[in-house]
Design brief:
By secondary structure, the protein is of the alpha/beta class. It is built from 8 helices and 7 strands. The chain has a single domain, classed as Rossmann fold. Bound molecules: nicotinamide-adenine-dinucleotide (NAD). The site of nicotinamide-adenine-dinucleotide has 25 residues, from helix 1.
Amino acid sequence: MAEVMGRLEDKVAVVTGAAHGLGRATALRLAQEGAKLVLGDIEAEALAATAAEIAALGRPVETVVGDLTEPAGAEALIGAAMAAFGQIDGLVNNLGGARNAKIWEMSVEDWDFTLRLNLRGTFLCTRHALPHMMARRQGRIVCLSSGAREGTPWTAHDTGGAAYSASKAAVHGFIRDVAIEVAAHNITVNAVAPGPIDTDRTGPGLLKLEETSELGPIRLTPLGRLGQPEEVANAILFLLSDEASYISGHTLAVTGGR
Ligand SMILES: NC(=O)c1ccc[n+]([C@@H]2O[C@H](COP(=O)([O-])OP(=O)(O)OC[C@H]3O[C@@H](n4cnc5c(N)ncnc54)[C@H](O)[C@@H]3O)[C@@H](O)[C@H]2O)c1
């Protein structure tokens, strides 16, 4: 009987921000498809919990705890992947988040924090992974943008979210150019742009907004519900898989139709 192969059988995938939310769901989804995982996060305990779930699936997994917005953290993550597995097939730049405020009240610290969190780790991990991918003429990079790249009415109306939206639009610009830079090396670079997703941390706030705001996220989403983390993980899986071999420089919306 033919052996059933996963879509990422024995591919090595690095996932940043894998302790919680979409990073965790993505790491698990990639492991289910046969990938070997290298996971980075700043939260040691929760990262170990994600890794334990992957080990329970019988897949090899390495973890690196550190601040991935710092060069040393990004270098350690990519270095750990090369030391453990000798290659990197896929990089998921998932790390991100926001400190929100109305723009006329936003502190410079919160503005810098948000841009740094969404952009510096993405830049640094991409920068350090690419030479290894280029050497093998093979690689897939997927970055987390957001539906916020075109603005997010519920966040804007409630707390203000311009720094976050600006940073996620920047992720789209980043993948457009890097895709061209590395095309000659047979590497693809794409983004996924999730809409409102029911993660442990974000979901409760989104549901509360649905009750309190006239611009509720569910009301403004044609499919009429929050997305599930696995629905984002499936899009990331697709862009990492052989099925997406002719797709590069694209931001795939996973926004329930918005
Ligand atoms: N949840 C949503 O609705 C949603 C929607 C659109 C886009 N996104 C994007 O998806 C990505 C994941 O979002 P999430 O909701 O799962 O977030 P989350 O906060 O649940 O997870 C982010 C992870 O990054 C880690 N992290 C934070 N700072 C770090 C640092 N300096 N170094 C290393 N690790 C660090 C956290 O510990 C956490 O595990 C982000 O880029 C986010 O902007 C999320």
